[in-house]
Amino acid sequence: MGKRIVVVGTQWGDEGKGKITDYLAAGADVVVRSQGGNNAGHTIHFNHQKFALHFIPSGVFFPKTKNVMANGMVIEPNAFFQELDDLAARGVTGFRLFVSDRAHVIMPYHLDLDVLWETFKGPLAVGTTKKGIGPCYADKASRNGIRVGDLLDPEALALRLRASLSVTNPTLMSFGREPYDFDVLYQKYRALGDRLRPFVTDTSVLLNDEIDKGSRILFEGAQGIMLCLDHGTYPYVTSSSPTAASVPVNCGISPMAITDVVGVTKAYSTRVGGGAFPTEFEDAIAQGIRERGHEYGTTTGRPRRIGWIDAVVLRHSRRVSGVTDLAIMLLDVLTGVPELKICIAYDLDGTLLKEVPGNYLHFSRCRPVYITLPGWSEDLTGIRSWHELPPNAKRYLETIEQQTGLKIAIFSVGPDRSQTIDIKQFFE
Ligand code: IMP
Q1: Is the domain of 213 the same as that of 333?
Q2: 69 plus 139 within the same structural domain
Q3: What is the pLDDT of residue 273?
């Protein structure tokens, strides 16, 4: 039986999931994106070129791999085609890509509403990527959405667009905006539907066939568990669930189908956008980490906030997402930092917490309780096995294992594929 591995981010996104997925994709028959949209940005280094993928699964660099964008995703067709064109312009063509007929379409008014909601919330804004993700998922939940399959059927598109505009236009006008014209949008999205048609299929049927055949399948998580709509730092979260538990519903497969869950973490922490971040610090060391780790958003270019690694967050992610193995990214970035901190608990107004509190105001008052370990000065970028690691780096990683109860299966010491070192083989 081929394994069905889920890769999840265990922090606030940007953990390096794209690199791990790309690494594991070499052994996979199918790579699947199951949630989110182009709020995600996965950086992949291939043939000495750097690629930033937003919608497209990371398996596109392997011609035989099937790439699936499943029903739980939200897709903005113009940005989707732009990404395909960008890949083609750089010689990445001929890959196999399938888009679910049940994925939801990000419409232009979703982009407008994302900006308007953020603007009107003022200081309470979430700090979204402004890609229309939240309004699109909100329309899905309130039964006002348009699905990819609707774009292929003139009658379905007319019905769905009419229903959607009947609630969206009054909302836009209440914000002082012009309403959208039905005919203009209808013609535009019919044409986009025709362009999408060759990719569109029932991806649940496709994936279940692959499972029955014993194919090796990789589910590529987007964002991180702390951005989960249910288990993250609500309301400073995204609008879908990046947990492994969301994969079956977002793909139309059995929950029993998943065999492994690889939790990806940075050797430190980062966060973009608003929201509490207990281990955040800003000084020359943080700035050094930001520069060496290129900690600027792939999607928005915003500088990422920097923090120490947080074992409370990693334990939370392990629990809510059933993480079975840990992949530690960007270990080389910590070279030269004299002392490294690991947060092992929080102090909330004098009470010691071992878990992430559900109340956001409590979470924002949590002060980190650290253990401090000596750093290392050796360059790690040439290391290719666990045994070559300097003693202080080993000690750092072993302490993370102890604090999280998870074994490190993979660690990464640089952007190249050869700098990803696996201790455990996933796809044999
Ligand atoms: P949205 O997903 O655009 O609605 O943004 C909601 C929150 O999730 C914001 O804080 C974003 O910065 C954050 N976010 C969404 N996608 C990603 C991602 O792929 N990496 C990191 N942060 C993300």
Answers
A1: no
A2: no
A3: 82
Together in a domain, 388 and 301: yes
Measured in Å, residue 295 CA sits from the centre of ligand 1 at 15
97 & 108 share domain:
no
- Is residue 268 in some structural domain? yes
Whether 54 is catalytic: no
pTM for this prediction: 0.94
In a domain, 427, yes or no: no
Mean of all residue pLDDT scores within the chain = 95
What is the domain range of residue 126? 104-196
Q: What is the mean pLDDT of residues 103-132?
A: 96
Paired residues of 209 in beta bridges: none
Q: What is the pLDDT of residues 329-386, one digit of tens each?
A: 999 999 999 999 999 999 999 999 999 999 999 999 999 999 999 999 999 999 999 9
Tokens 């900690």 found at: 295
Which one of 22, 42, 316, 332 is the catalytic residue?
42
Q: How far apart are CA 414 and CA 100, in angstroms?
A: 34
Clarify whether residues 136 and 80 are in a common domain: no
Q: Write down the pLDDT at residue 416.
A: 85
Of all protein residues, the one whose alpha carbon is nearest to atom 21 of ligand 1 is 13
17 touches ligand 1 (CB under 6 Å): no
- In the residue annotation, 42 being an active-site residue is answered as yes
CB 239 within 8 A of CB 138: yes
Name the residue of 136, 220, 223 to mutate for ligand 1: max ligand atoms within 8 A of Cβ: 223
DSSP three-state, residue 287? helix
Among residues 142, 33, 148, 51, the alpha carbon closest in space to that of 92 is found at 51
Kindly state whether residues 320 and 399 are assigned to the same domain. yes
Q: Does the C-beta of 40 come closer than 6 Å to ligand 1? A: yes
